[in-house]
Amino acid sequence: RWEGRYGEAFLSEVEGVACRTYQLCCRDPALDGIGAAEPASGLPEPASGDSLFGGVGPTCFASPEGAADEVAVAAQDPSAPSFCALVSGASLTLDPAPAVCAALDQWVDGFESSACQADFCTHGVDGYVQFVDLCVSFVRTNALVMGAALSVLVLLQLVLVVNLYDLQRRFYKPHLNRRVAVGPVYSPTAHCSDRPCAGSTTWGAARGKGALHGPL
Fold first, then answer.
1. Local structure of residue 54 (DSSP, 8 states)
2. What is the dihedral of CA 76, 125, 114, 39, to 10 degrees?
3. Is 126 inside any structural domain?
4. What value does the mean pLDDT take over residues 92-99?
5. pLDDT number for residue 62
6. Where are the transmembrane segments (predicted)?
7. What is the SS3 assignment for 174?
8. What distance in Å separates the CA atoms of residue 72 and residue 20, rounded to the nearest whole number?
9. How many domains, in total, are found in the chain?
């Protein structure tokens, strides 16, 4: 879908998250509680997900024999474990938090998880497309509010960074001034261990021998 477009990798991952959100919020709970359920109206009998891609439970469509046929069916079956990877091309498998379903119910107009779950198998991939359209419409409608909220968040972070920098300078400057006032410890004979220093009368003492010599 996004091949050849600017930012195709990022867009694919975003759609992958949206797809996994659809699977999380709209998957029919009956699929998880059955081993061999009655077929949905007008659709093949749900099949356990022991397919080429590895399943985690019953799926809406029965998996046919053959890799090519299995890929084609999985791309049309939103309950298939490989559905999101096939539809979006996303490589990551980050799962959204379960709380996002309640947020969608409350904020997204036209979305009801109960109705979405009831039509999960019946609508197939069309149900997923409708879900994406609802989410895109929600983002477009509330883009100004969301942008303002993000701007306020960034502004607060900048204020925090400036305050931390000012605090660091306030405590570090007195410490630096104390170091400058004290100065480094310097021994005038530290560099005279192997030769007499000009004007020194303690050449022997500088070498630790205790012998006194006159100036050179």
1. -
2. -40
3. yes
4. 84
5. 76
6. 143-165
7. helix
8. 19
9. 1
Domain for residue 163, yes or no?
no
Alpha helices in the chain (DSSP H): 8-26, 29-32, 67-74, 83-88, 99-107, 113-118, 120-123, 125-141, 143-182, 203-206
In a domain, 46, yes or no: yes
Q: Which of 118, 37, 42, 50 is nearest to 80 (CA)?
A: 50
Q: Both tokens of residue 123?
A: 């609508």
Question: 1 is written with which tokens?
Answer: 């879908």
Beta-bridged to residue 47, according to DSSP, are 59
Does residue 209 form part of some domain? no
Q: How far is CA 175 from CA 161, 168, 170, 178, in A?
A: 22, 11, 9, 5
Distances (CA, A) of 96 to 42, 115, 119, 204, 212: 31, 20, 21, 79, 83
- Using a cut of 0.70, tell me whether the model's pTM lies above it: no
